[in-house]
Design brief:
single chain; Rossmann fold; seven-stranded parallel β-sheet; two-stranded parallel sheet; 10 helices; 11 strands; 49% helix
Length: 281
């Protein structure tokens, strides 16, 4: 049975590959972006199976209207993919207040508006799958990515809570954590090339060089393969809450979680002190 998708940020990058993979197997897609100019080829190839929607996820009213149009057009929504987002790059000291607010408005609030707009329809159906594009940057933190990490770590917590909240309604949630992918618009995410750069302070130039070397050495994944992997996830009766797309960051993640557990264990005596005597009285 074919599925109906809504994919945000679908004019380029992984979002575009997700849309094309779904359409190519006979599914229907409401493809959203800030501009619909890039969807002409999809409409020519797939006709009424694709519904281009102009939608800026930072505009709450536009999000609710766009999700409503998608549901009314296709009659249902089966898969909602929160893909829209970008990377703000800069040391914490370099970030302006507006840059940080803009990062959270798009990556966090935009995702929340989409979920809030879609949930009433999914509850009514007693089915559906919400897919959140996070990042390996939602699991570990590196220098110069504080704003981006803040947004992705927030999405990790929001969607884990969401998964518990909607399970009784038959709705599934999956958080996808990609590494780097060689998309048509360039390696994604590559914050030094594709990100929004803060005004730089030369005292952080050494960090910038090290980050560039680290990003450049990460293997670039195949976005078409990522799209096929997503199809398997949305077709699964028991999809994962979290899944990495790509293995480049896996060793770093293993070490990071091992280090956290060891630190907590090493400081257990102090943790007990912090609890105080009243707790054992």
């Amino acid at each position: 049975m074919s599925k109906v998708w809504l994919v945000t940020g679908s004019s380029r990058g992984l979002g575009r590959d997700f849309v094309e993979a779904a359409l190519s197997r006979g599914d229907k897609v409401a493809a959203t972006a800030r501009s619909t100019d890039g969807f002409d080829e999809l409409v020519a190839a797939y006709g009424d199976a694709v519904l281009p929607l102009q939608m800026d996820v930072t505009d709450k009213a536009a999000v609710f209207e766009g999700v409503k149009r998608a549901k009314e057009h296709f009659g249902r929504l089966d898969v909602v993919v929160n893909n829209a987002g970008y990377a703000q790059v800069g040391a914490i000291e370099e970030l302006t207040e507006q840059q940080l607010r803009d990062q959270l408005e798009t990556n966090v609030f935009g995702a929340v508006w989409v979920v809030q707009a879609a949930l009433p329809y999914l509850r009514e159906q007693h089915s559906g799958h919400i897919v959140q594009l996070s990042s390996a940057a939602g699991l570990i933190a590196m220098p110069l990515g504080g704003a981006y990490h803040a947004s992705k770590w927030a999405l990790e917590g929001l969607n884990e809570a969401l998964a518990h909240e909607v399970a009784d309604f038959g709705i599934k949630v999956t958080i996808i954590e990609p590494g780097g992918f060689a998309t048509r618009s360039g390696k994604n995410p590559d914050p030094l090339n594709n990100g929004h750069l803060a005004e730089t302070n030369p005292v952080y130039d050494g960090l910038r060089r090290r980050l560039a070397d680290m990003v450049g050495n990460q293997p670039a994944g195949d976005p078409a393969a990522a799209a096929q992997a997503l199809l398997k996830i949305v077709d699964s009766d028991a999809p994962p809450l979290r899944v990495l797309f790509g293995l480049g960051f896996y060793p770093m993640l293993q070490q990071a979680y091992a280090d956290r557990l060891k630190t907590w264990a090493d400081w257990q005596d102090l943790s007990a002190e912090a609890q105080g005597k009243l707790a054992s009285a």
